[in-house]
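Hi support team,

I submitted a single chain yesterday and got back a structure, but I'm not sure I'm reading the token output correctly. Could someone confirm the output below corresponds to the sequence I sent? I've pasted both exactly as they appear in my results page.

Thanks,
R.
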Amino acid sequence: MSIKSRGRCGPALCGAIIGLALGALAAPASAGPTERDYLARLVKAGPAELQAAREAGRKASFFCANCHGETGLSKYGEVPNLAGQNPVYVLNQIDAFLAGKRKDAFMEGLMRVLNAREKTDIAVFYAAQAATPAVPVAGQRAAEGREHFMRNCFRCHGEDARGGENFPRLAGQQADYLRRSLNRYLKSSAERTYPPMTAAVTVLGEQNIEAVVAYLSSLK
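Hi R., thanks for writing in. Yes, this is the structure output for that exact sequence:
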């Protein structure tokens, strides 16, 4: 759940959020239910409780909407869509930002504002949103991209590219975001470091990245 949102929201809102985040950094940790505890409870819950959690997530994600869109469909090409992502995957990425495994100081600050229940509610809210293709018409290299995807990527991301608990949904994802992420993995940059992905993109080849982007960004 990467975001390049500096300057996307107004100064007052950004300042308030960062102030809250700094306060959270200074606050002592308290024991209590974790995000996984809340998610496990929601899995067993009835429709009414699950819907209430999604509504709470919609409200809690008000600052996410500045970049990721009100329903998880990004407003900016370099910012990923969150609609339709598996809630466990979303929570894992929140953890990655907090642990410094994914690099974005702004995102890390935002995640520290949220408590465990709010993170879980946001994750189930985005998971329930309809994902749509980032580009309405497949590019000329989409068919070629499908061949590369099925050769190099489907074992983790699924034949339909909709991901799961450990791997993200790529179907319909923003083209710019896909392009930047694949190049970052290829170059093992500080923002995205994951050796299996670097190995996969190396096999794919830099010259074939655009074909895969054309394919994935046009999927439903």
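A quick pointer for reading it: The domain at 11-127 is CATH 1.10.760.10 (Cytochrome Bc1 Complex; Chain D, domain 2). Let us know if anything else looks off.

Best,
Support desk
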